[in-house]
Design a protein that fits this description.
With 228 residues, the chain is mainly α. The chain has nine helices and no strands. Helices cover 71% and strands 0% of the residues. The protein is globular and about 55 Å long.
């Protein structure tokens, strides 16, 4: 029997705006078809939400209430695990690690409860911040940007994921905000390219944020150098 060795390559990427988008673009092109399929799965999963939003225009109040309840449940119990799983797949791609498309559904099996609770906690904190004159909500959203990656990549529970994301994003708040701001224009640029451009635009944005998390993780958690 032949011995098979799996080599894990450490991808060096700087934790800054340009490096995150640049590295994200390169790795996205390397795994374009795989990440495209992941993105299509996410889009397909979001279709029922669009149908429910159209249905909310109905005049029958009980039906609208039922649709709203179902929509909240669907977003919480179905879309959240798929979203976390897609981020995990993108992260593996940015690390240049082997991954399988089916890992987008890994959240339903491995970290389901943590994903639901982490998503609830994150949304609650951000919404509370929005009610505090909006700006705190933006700050909280930037500080908690790494929560999905930490739940999937480090297997942290919701509270620990929030605390660790808060710690990791210290000093990178403006970078995350700037990336989010530029992402709006990237998405709008995709819309101008016959609408279909929104898919690669969304892929690039996801790749960039996954790259930033990976870079910050390497930077913040690198072993200390002991001088003898």
């Amino acid at each position: 029997m032949e011995n098979q060795e799996v080599q894990t390559q450490t991808i060096q990427v700087k934790p800054d705006f340009g490096s995150a988008f640049g590295h994200g673009w390169r790795m996205m092109m390397k795994y374009f078809l795989e990440l495209l399929l992941v993105s299509l799965v996410v889009i397909a999963a979001q279709i029922p939400m669009g149908i429910m939003q159209v249905g909310q225009g109905a005049e029958f109040a009980p039906a609208m209430a039922l649709l709203q309840v179902f929509g909240i449940g669907y977003a919480l119990f179905v879309l959240a695990p798929i979203d976390f799983g897609s981020k995990f797949v993108f992260l593996k791609g940015m690390k240049d690690q082997k991954f399988e498309i089916k890992e987008i559904f890994s959240g339903f099996k491995d970290n389901y409860l943590n994903i639901i609770l982490a998503n609830l906690l994150t949304v609650a904190i951000v919404v509370a911040g929005i009610f505090m004159l909006i700006i705190p909500g933006i700050i909280f959203a930037c500080k908690l940007a790494f929560v999905p990656y930490l739940v999937m990549d480090k297997n942290l529970d919701p509270v620990e994921a929030v605390k660790e994301s808060w710690r990791m994003t210290k000093g990178y708040g403006w970078t995350i905000f700037g990336m989010g701001f530029v992402s709006i224009f990237i998405f709008l640029g995709g819309l101008l390219l016959l609408i279909l451009g929104v898919i690669p635009a969304a892929m690039w944005i996801s790749s960039a944020f996954a790259s930033l998390y990976h870079a910050v993780d390497l930077e913040k958690n690198k072993p200390a150098v002991v001088q003898v």
